[in-house]
Amino acid sequence: MDSYVTRQQVRGINRKLFANDIIYSDSSVDTLQQLIASIVQRYDPDDEIAGVPFILEIKENNLTEATFQNIMILNKDSVIIQINSAILAIPEKVDIIKKIKEAGYKVVVAINKEDKVFTLAKIFADIVKFDINALPENVFNDRNAFTCKKLASNVNTADD
Question: pTM (2 decimals)?
Answer without folding.
Answer: 0.81
